[in-house]
TrEMBL record, chain A:
Classification lineage: Bacteria, Bacillati, Bacillota, Bacilli, Bacillales
UniProt record similarity statement: Belongs to the helicase family. UvrD subfamily.
Gene Ontology biological-process annotations: recombinational repair
Catalytic reaction(s) noted: ATP + H2O = ADP + phosphate + H(+); Couples ATP hydrolysis with the unwinding of duplex DNA by translocating in the 3'-5' direction
Sample GO molecular function, one term: ATP binding
Keywords, comma-separated and alphabetical: ATP-binding, DNA-binding, Helicase, Hydrolase, Isomerase, Nucleotide-binding
A Pfam cross-reference name: UvrD_C
Superkingdom of source: Bacteria
Keyword presence, DNA-binding: yes
The name this protein goes by in its record: DNA 3'-5' helicase
UniProt KW ATP-binding keyword: yes
Residues given in the record as ATP binding sites: A32, G33, P34, G35, S36, G37, K38, T39
EC number(s) per entry: 5.6.2.4
SUPFAM superfamilies for this protein: P-loop containing nucleoside triphosphate hydrolases (SSF52540)
Automatic annotation (TrEMBL), chain B:
Record-level Gene Ontology MF annotations: ATP binding; ATP hydrolysis activity; endonuclease activity
Keywords linked to the UniProt accession: Endonuclease, Hydrolase, Nuclease
Annotated protein name in UniProt: ATP-dependent endonuclease of the OLD family
CDD domains: TOPRIM_OLD
Segments forming domain OLD protein-like TOPRIM: 434-497
ATPase AAA-type core domain mapped to chain residues: 32-384
Domain of life: Bacteria
């Protein structure tokens, strides 16, 4: 057994909840609070299942929310001694639906699924949505594409008893939109999950095949995955012998606008015949930080205990600025960060959380002025499969020990096949040689990411392969966006080493929206815009469900911190009104108040 | 063990491969491949092996010009493609196969997998290359990964069973031993004890003396060198090799090693061992302690206790005679928590009859046919075909368009018909399969006489491989269906059974056993009616096109290979020779020779024959007091008959089947 595995195993043996989750031999739901080591448990569990329980050629599927998570996950598994094997699926829900359900089985049935799958591009989708709204005579302000998509996912029927009030306009737009999309012979990502769910619900043979391949299905971040996946899981749980291992945290469910609500995870958690486990020890944060995050959540029975020792006390700083966000940005750049640095906190241990993309752009400007390097977790392009593959290529080019050429070629070969190129045995060898020599040759451009990308994209003929692609409809645009960033955007000074390590700040502070901060952790977390009306958004204050979600966003934000929290607010904002510009006084956010009160009562360090 | 059958090849399509131009056949769970020498039975197996045999190398799968269909001129220059498709059914109960091959699914009702081999010029380079892919998805390859879980094992016709049994690596008994996980400690323990026991022998004075002698001799020759110490040792006690010392012995009282037993017995043993090794091992017959404990953790594990019994060493044996329901439940339990990671092997045996006495062939293969493993075999043995299930026949035949194959997998008969046919084939030792043409007749007399008539007509049946099948009834239906499926040309000869309508007690009634008479106002032939019904039922003609006129009917039936007499064959023979004194004399002489009746009776017979009262003659032949009988009469007549005896319809039938076969024969 691999030494990292044994080491980690010893580690989780000390936590009885983690160990129980690791050992469970029936369907299990693990509620995993922030910093509770869920990824460790999940990856060790996968290794144990593959080594001891599941005999080749059967395997398992592990589904996660996004591609970055998949990459992170796969790397962790390799570190634990995972060897690639058949019928082990590690990927996103979408990829699972396509590769394991629709491609092999949809053609056997008659569900009007347009085959082969042709996925609509984002551009076309937006246009189609707008046309539909206009056609149906709705006010474009009344409905956003996300509202429609939410209704579409909620439209799936099945076993779940969770009910959500439908949004009538959303439903009507959704129906018309789907009709039009399918008439064009196309589908979008929501369709893919819906069709896959339908096939699993209705067809015994499909379930049987999935059961044969995957006696276990493991799901990470269950709270983010919404209704279709929930119904898929319920159907497999009730109608097959597949064992489900779902990990998630209802308190970190912050994608309500997508239709992802905590209720689904809670429903699964309390189902009969499911082992319910709660990971209560937080190995990330100081107990005071944990307590603070729970206060924001305003929920009963959250008894998280810190499992980590700190030399220093936790710190909470409540900073009131004068006017506008700008004062807060300046406070961060010119006061908070320098003071952190003075205390010896490295830049990559500092994170600034703001409300929106727009605020990120404003913050950037100030940071640029102050000469503070920063890293933005959300990029101007998507880290799509192909971009992640390019990152892997870069990694191989600079040090071919970290990634195998075979795995790079497997993806390439797959990409060619998916784009209607027949790969015979000889062609396979030729392509292998070609890819190898192009990558080897690309070393000469290693100092400039832009030149390297251009060289690769040109020589691999990526544009012509991806032109009008059925499965990657947005990829040509996405690659262009990447090129643009590399040419004269934020990556213009990147060498390929930096590109290969995308996703990690290097001597940079991290700049993120509150929503995108999920899964990250820092010594210091700086929360901006803590005014009443801004956070929580004033329209959500009187809607209990929406307020609860805002509370969860606050919970997520605070719980990113290991030890230090800064909360910033401004007293005045000038806003455009019917009567021209007016300056308003802003009160602190309710989260600020609640936290401030509790700190004061406890007598902890409050500045 | 259980009723759960292993997967089988349900369909084979071959295009442009060797002697196959374009064939497409359905198969069942057992396949008995018959056909003359050189018709391509081995090539048929080879086509399947190209896809499924793990022993084939890449090079074997890479075909060349000589593998193209013989009728193609310069196939590779013209970009011809060889394509072999096989479909698999009966796999869905097994998760190992499902998990590896579900991509190959082309239908779920019934669940069907498809694998396609293609040898074709590549688009880029125009060079030939091959691919094997799953289902309808050329991008999903079928490789050795998959073949490990679904494959074929071929036992060749020319095999040296004895040496395979002796070969420690390939021996089937060694393979079976390898399937078990032996406890190393246990073996070591036994090894040590064996060593201890056997070392005692070395302490016998005689052996001490011998060892000394050898050593002295050796040292004298070699000098005192490091390797010159010779010692006597007993048996090999290496725990890893202790199992290799196990030998199969045959015989109850006088046990003999297999090397000393007959080739035939060894063949049976060999095939039995192979079949055991190919059995579905999803349900283990022996469960090790630790596996049992692990499985007990599963929530539905109470079935284990029901089905297994603890051995004295703490392991668990599967109980005998568990009922099917329980076994099915156990199968799905074991399949779900599968300990077994084995897939399935389809067995192909070329000429399994080799070295076996006919009665052994029947006994062994009756059993093989019931086995859960799917088996293909090529055979010339009527003893094996006679016990083959009706729907298992794969019949190969040469034609101008290459070898064609007819199979009986889709045979659709009622249970009664099936039983009749099966019994007939069993009793007649499967002769029906081996004819190039078949004459179906309804009784023993025809069976004797028709070959003799053919001989007289200069068309001996044996010369063309025509077989005269006596089905002992007029129920031709299943035989005709079966022969149609097999693609074997046939004719059917049956009695006309002339009748006239008469009134009996005011009721109209058919009167049989009379000769045609102008006084019969309303009459008919039962034989014609029977055949008419049959042909309509088999959809060879449709009801509306059945002519009213009896002569026209006869003509139409003859075109379809059905030849009908007027009365019954003996009467028709007498009628045929009414103008021939020689013919009539022969009949009288035979009667006179055979009957136990007196001169008076013989006189009467002769008189009746001359006057055309044939039914009275027949009654005398049939009368049991005279001890003649139709069979005996026919047997004797078959030795003496002359051309004058041959009724026209029989002559026509013989001409018909002869010309059919010559038609086919032209291409051979």
């Amino acid at each position: 057994m691999n030494s990292t595995y044994l080491e980690k195993l010893e580690q989780i043996k000390k936590d009885k909840d983690q160990f129980a989750a690791f050992n469970s031999n029936c369907s299990t739901v693990v509620k995993a609070g922030p910093g509770s080591g869920k990824t460790t448990v999940l990856t060790l569990k996968i290794m144990k299942l593959l080594n001891d329980k599941i005999k080749y050629p059967r395997g398992l599927a592990c589904l996660t929310y996004n591609r970055e998570a998949v990459k992170e996950f796969t790397n962790r598994l390799y570190e634990l001694g995972y060897v690639k094997r058949n019928n082990v699926f590690l990927g996103t829900v979408h990829a699972f639906c396509i590769a394991e359900v629709i491609s092999p089985f949809a053609h056997l049935y008659d569900y009007d699924i347009p085959l082969p799958l042709k996925i609509v591009s984002e551009k076309e989708k937006n246009k189609l949505f707008k046309d539909t709204v206009i056609q149906l005579n709705y006010d474009p302000n009344q409905i956003k594409i996300i509202d429609m998509d939410k209704e579409r996912t909620l439209g799936i029927e099945g076993i779940s008893c969770v009910s959500v009030e439908p949004y009538d306009i959303g439903l009507k737009v959704a129906k018309e939109y789907e009709n039009r999309l399918h008439a064009m012979g196309m589908v979008d990502f929501i369709d893919i999950v819906k069709y896959a769910t339908l096939l699993i619900q209705k067809e015994e043979y499909v379930r049987k095949c999935l059961e044969a391949k995957f006696p276990w299905i493991l799901i990470d971040e269950y709270q983010d995955l919404g209704k279709p996946l929930h119904e898929m899981v319920l159907s497999l749980f009730h109608k097959t012998n597949i064992k489900i291992f779902a990990v998630g945290d209802p308190d970190q469910s912050i994608y309500g606008f997508n239709g992802a609500i905590p209720d689904y995870l809670n429903e699964l958690y309390s189902s009969p015949n499911i082992e319910a486990i709660e990971l209560k020890t937080n190995y990330r944060s100081h107990q005071d930080i944990i307590n603070a995050s729970i206060i924001g959540l305003n929920q009963q029975n959250r008894n998280y205990v810190s499992g980590k020792r700190f030399d220093k006390d936790a710190e909470f700083h409540f900073i009131t600025c004068e006017e506008e966000m700008d004062d807060q940005y300046k406070e961060v750049a010119y006061s908070i960060i320098p003071s952190c640095q003075q205390k010896g906190i490295p830049l990559e241990e500092i994170c600034v959380l703001v409300h929106s993309e727009k605020q990120i752009q404003s913050m950037r400007k100030i940071l640029d002025e102050a000469n503070i390097p920063y890293y933005i977790s959300k990029l101007e392009f998507k880290r799509s499969d192909i971009v992640i593959w390019l990152e892997q290529c870069a990694l191989w080019v600079i040090s071919n020990s970290n990634v195998s050429f075979s795995s790079l070629f497997d993806y390439w070969n797959n990409l060619l096949q998916k784009h209607n190129q027949t790969i015979t045995a000889e062609r396979n060898i030729l392509e292998r040689k070609r890819l190898y020599s192009i990558l080897k040759e690309s070393i000469k451009h290693f100092k400039s990411l832009y030149k390297w990308l251009e060289f690769l994209i040109k020589n691999l003929k990526l544009h012509s392969i991806l032109y009008d692609s059925d499965i990657y409809p947005d990829e040509v645009d996405n690659l262009n966006a990447l090129i643009k960033v590399a040419k004269d955007g934020s990556f213009r000074d990147f060498d390929i080493t930096r590109f290969a390590n995308l996703g990690k700040p290097i001597n940079q502070i991290t700049l993120s929206t509150r929503h995108s901060s999920k899964g990250l952790e820092f010594e210091v977390v700086i929360l901006l815009g803590m005014e009443q009306g801004n956070f929580p958004y004033y329209k959500n204050e009187n809607d209990p469900e929406k307020l609860a979600e805002e509370r969860r966003v606050f919970f997520v934000s605070i719980s990113r911190a290991k030890r230090v929290c800064y909360l910033l607010r401004s007293k005045k904002y000038t806003r455009k009104t019917r009567f021209g510009y007016k300056t308003f006084n802003y009160k602190p956010s309710m989260f600020w108040e609640e936290l401030y009160e509790s700190k004061k009562n406890l007598g902890t360090t409050v500045n | 063990m259980t009723k759960i059958k292993s997967p089988y090849i349900s369909r084979v399509k071959i295009k442009n491969f060797r002697n196959f131009k374009d064939i497409d056949v359905n198969l069942s769970h057992k396949q008995v491949i018959i056909g003359e020498n050189n018709v391509g039975k081995t090539n048929f197996l080879k086509a399947i092996q190209i896809i499924l045999d793990p022993k084939f190398s890449d090079e074997d799968r890479f075909l060349n010009e000589s593998d193209f269909y013989d009728g193609l001129v310069e196939p590779m220059k013209n970009g011809e493609i060889i394509e072999i498709i096989i479909e698999i059914r009966g796999y869905e109960h097994n998760k190992t196969v499902l998990s590896m091959l579900s991509d190959a699914t082309i239908s779920e009702n019934p669940p069907t997998l498809r694998l396609t081999y293609k040898f074709f010029p590549s688009q880029d380079t125009n060079e030939y290359t091959y691919t094997i892919f799953q289902g309808d998805r050329p991008e999903v390859q079928f490789t050795h990964f998959h073949r490990k879980f679904l494959n074929i094992k071929v036992i060749n016709a020319i095999r040296d069973v004895e040496s395979e049994m002796r070969n420690s690596r390939k021996s089937p008994i060694k393979n079976l031993l390898r399937d078990y996980e032996f406890d190393k400690d246990e073996l070591e323990d036994i090894g040590a004890k064996l060593k201890e026991q056997s070392n005692e022998i070395l302490s016998i004075d005689e052996l001490i003396d011998l060892e000394k002698k050898i050593n002295n001799r050796f040292i004298n020759t070699m000098g005192n060198q490091s390797f010159s110490k010779i010692s006597l040792e007993t048996i090999d006690v290496d725990p890893n090799r202790i199992l290799n010392t196990l030998k199969l012995m045959i015989g109850e009282e006088k046990q003999r090693p297999t090397s000393d037993t007959s080739l035939g017995i060894n063949n049976i043993l060999y095939i039995s061992l192979i079949l055991i090794s190919l059995e579905d091992k999803t349900i283990p017959t022996l469960l090790k302690k630790e596996n049992y404990i692990e499985l007990s953790e599963e929530s539905d594990s109470e079935i284990l206790e029901e089905c297994y019994v603890k051995s004295s060493k703490g392991n668990y044996f599967l109980k005998d005679n568990l009922d099917d329901g329980l076994m099915l439940k156990l199968y799905s339990f074991m399949d779900n928590y599968s300990l077994s990671k084995e897939g399935f092997t389809i067995l192909a045996i070329e000429e399994p009859e080799a070295h076996l006495h006919p009665s052994f062939q029947r006994i062994i293969y009756k059993d093989v046919m019931k086995n859960n493993t799917s088996v293909l075999m090529t055979t010339h043995s009527p003893y094996i075909t006679s016990v083959a299930p009706l729907n298992s026949i794969v019949h190969l035949r040469t034609t101008q368009e290459g070898t064609i194959i007819n199979t009986t997998a889709d045979l659709n008969l009622s249970d009664k018909e099936k039983q009749d046919l099966e019994r007939y084939i069993d009793v007649k030792r499967g002769e029906i399969y081996f004819g190039k043409g078949v004459i179906l007749v309804e009784g023993i007399a025809e069976e004797y006489l028709i070959p003799a008539f053919a001989e007289i007509l200069g068309k001996p049946l044996d010369l063309k491989g025509i077989i005269c099948c006596n089905i002992n009834s007029t129920n031709f239906d299943p035989y005709v269906k079966f022969l149609d499926m097999l693609g074997i040309p046939y004719v059917c000869i049956t009695d006309g059974d002339y009748y006239a309508w008469v009134k009996e007690k005011e009721e109209p009634k058919r009167k049989y056993h009379i000769v045609v008479d102008d006084s019969h106002i309303s009459n008919g032939y039962l034989g014609l009616e029977r055949i008419g019904d049959l042909l309509v039922k088999l959809q060879k003609i449709n009801n509306s096109s059945l002519p009213k006129d009896l002569d026209e009917q006869e003509e139409l039936f003859a075109k379809n290979g059905f030849f009908i007499g007027y009365y019954t064959m003996e009467v028709d023979i007498m009628d045929a020779c009414s103008e021939s004194n020689q013919g009539k004399d022969i009949i009288c002489n035979i009667f006179n020779e055979l009957t136990t009746g007196g001169e008076r009776q013989k006189e009467n017979f002769k008189r009746e024959l001359n006057s055309g009262d044939y039914w009275s003659c027949l009654r005398k032949i049939e009368n049991c007091e005279n001890e003649v009988g139709k069979g005996r009469f026919a047997q004797r007549l078959s030795l003496m008959c002359i051309k004058d005896h041959i009724p026209k319809y029989i002559e026509n039938a013989i001409d018909y089947i002869y010309s059919k076969i010559e038609e086919v024969g032209k291409y051979e």
